[in-house]
Amino acid sequence: MKRIFFFGVTSSRRRDTCCPDMRLLLDESIKTTPESVGDWGIVCGGRAELAQNHAKASGNSDAGWGESDHNIMKGPQMYSPAADIAPYCPIKKDYIWNAPDRWAALHDHIRVTAERLGIKVKCGVALKSGKKDNPHMVINEKLQIFPLMSLSCIPT
Ligand SMILES: [Zn+2]
Fold this sequence. Notes:
Layout: H1 9-15, H2 20-31, E1 40-44, H3 49-57, E2 73-74, E3 77-78, E4 82-89, E5 94-95, H4 100-117, E6 121-126, E7 132-139, H5 147-152
Antiparallel strand pairs: 1-4, 2-3, 4-5, 4-7, 6-7
Helix pairs in contact: 2-4
The structure holds zinc ion (ZN).
């Protein structure tokens, strides 16, 4: 029997902080995840001020509050065109950070799904430090406002 993947409570809450196109991409991608890609979840959608500044301080983001695609708001609502995702191990109940094959398969699946939906997405950006930010993906809406990011995150 074909296994169907779905977002848990935490991933669903994070998904709700994204803009409509990103929500559509996330929903469609999780629903159609092949077993060869395996389970995955949403690590972050919209990111609040404290968390954004912490991400910058810890080297996990180049951007301070208000400078990241994760910080886009529409009125009082988070409206993020960016989401961070990661392969997930349901047995350990934890994300899998260090598995290049899992990341590659997940990125491929997201790109194929986005293309089918007519959504432009970039997955896995290089930070200024040179460290690859595998979890990060962002859709077309904001790319022109962050030329520095979009230059360094062309999918390979
Ligand atoms: Zn991100």
